[in-house]
UniProtKB/TrEMBL annotation:
It comes from the Bacteria. Keywords: Coiled coil. Residues 7-48 form a coiled coil. It comes from Alishewanella longhuensis. This is DUF904 domain-containing protein. The keyword Coiled coil applies.
Length: 69
């Protein structure tokens, strides 16, 4: 193989690697955005869970007080 041919093959391989790197970077960015959205969703669900637990505790306290009368 000639040096020019090897250099052309190397250039092509480097170009493919750069394109693949761009694709992977784009995928990583999308996954990071999805992760952030999921984290926000989990925080929201945790907050809803906490509010529900507080309401249940209030209800139990009210029922206990009513039963004690």
């Amino acid at each position: 193989m000639s040096t020019e041919h090897l250099f052309s093959e190397l250039q092509l391989a480097v170009q493919r690697l750069l394109e693949k790197n761009q694709q992977l970077s784009s995928q990583l960015h999308q996954l990071q955005e999805q992760h952030e959205l999921l984290q926000l969703d989990v925080l929201e669900k945790d907050e809803q869970q906490e509010q529900l637990q507080q309401k249940m505790q209030t209800l139990l306290t009210t029922l206990s007080e009513a039963a004690g009368r």
